[in-house]
Amino acid sequence: MNTRKVVNLFFKTLAIGGLVGLIVSFFVNIGGAYTENLQPFNLMGLVGVILFFIGHGLLYSVVSQTGFFAYLYVHRLGLSIFRSFWPIVQVVLIIFVLFDLVYFPYKGSDGEVSLIWFILGAFLLLTYSWIIAKIKAKETKAHAFIPALFFMVVFTVIEWVPALRIGFVGADFSLIMVLTLLACNTYQLLILHRLHNSPKAKK
Fold first, then answer.
1. Alpha-carbon span 130 to 137, nearest angstrom
2. In the chain, what percentage of residues exceed pLDDT 70?
3. 64: closest CA among 13, 126, 19?
4. Residue 94, helix vs strand vs coil
5. What is the structure's pLDDT at 171?
6. pLDDT (0 to 100) of residue 13
7. Nearest-5° angle of CA 106, CA 66, CA 14?
8. How many other β-carbons are positioned within 10 Å of the β-carbon of residue 51?
9. Confidence grade of residue 200 (pLDDT, cut at 50, 70, 90)
10. Residue among 142, 147, 141, 127 at smallest CA distance from 189
11. Where are the transmembrane segments (predicted)?
12. Which one has a higher pLDDT value, 174 or 128?
């Protein structure tokens, strides 16, 4: 994959991040940001809010892309160290991360939020990741399923959770962030083999 394709991938993923961040913000409407500028109508304020959420989407896209290239390195490293055991190691890490995604947020909430919500969140992440991994495996090879599932679960959580813990984003922005990360991660994962197998790449 040449430099032109890497740059193209960067800007397309960036655009997806900005678009998803904006679209999700319409439904979240944090703090009534849109409502305040629609009643009464305030054009400059509305434009400012739109640019603000696009900016957040762009930022989360950069986080996603950093995580994706880190994943490519980790995957190669895992293959060289664990060899045939690497798929088993990935499955163990997936289970461990999903457990952490339920246990630690629930413990941090001091019981104020029901455990079922954390379990549901982890289940939804796993289900979505499973679907994307199946698509990846169908379009490439069967053994691509576990690495794809590993990336979608483990690296999405790695990209998302630390930012929440250090207060990089507030709780109200967590939904925008995770959906943007999932969209960008999905795009990068499913487009990678197409870039390698494109007609121009074969010439």
1. 10
2. 91
3. 13
4. helix
5. 66
6. 97
7. 100
8. 12
9. very low
10. 147
11. 9-34, 46-73, 85-103, 115-132, 144-161, 173-193
12. 128
The torsion angles phi and psi of 110, rounded to 5 degrees, stand at: 55, 35
For 41, phi then psi, to 5°, come to: -70, 130
CB 78 within 8 A of CB 199: no
pLDDT at residue 11, rounded to an integer: 97
Q: Which residue has the tokens 């960036």?
A: 14
Amino acid at site 48: G
> What tokens were used for 21?
């961040």
8 Å CB contact between 54 and 21? yes
Residue where the block lists tokens 């199946």: 134
Return the bridge partners of 38, or none: 41
For residue 198, what pLDDT is reported? 57
Residue 182: how many other CB atoms lie within 10 Å: 20
Measure CA 24 to chain center. 14
- At 108-165, the pLDDT tens digits run 778 788 899 999 999 999 999 999 999 999 999 999 999 999 999 999 999 998 766 6
Q: Under DSSP, is residue 39 helix (H, G, I), strand (E, B) or coil?
A: coil
Task: Tell which residue, 52, 2, 16, has the closest CA to residue 180.
Answer: 16
Q: Tokens in use for 124?
A: 């939804």
Give the number of C-alpha atoms closer than 13 A to the C-alpha of residue 181, restricted to the C-beta side: 26
pLDDT score for 203 = 37
Measure the CA–CA gap between 185 and 182, rounded to whole angstroms: 5
Indicate the pTM of the whole model.
Answer: 0.91
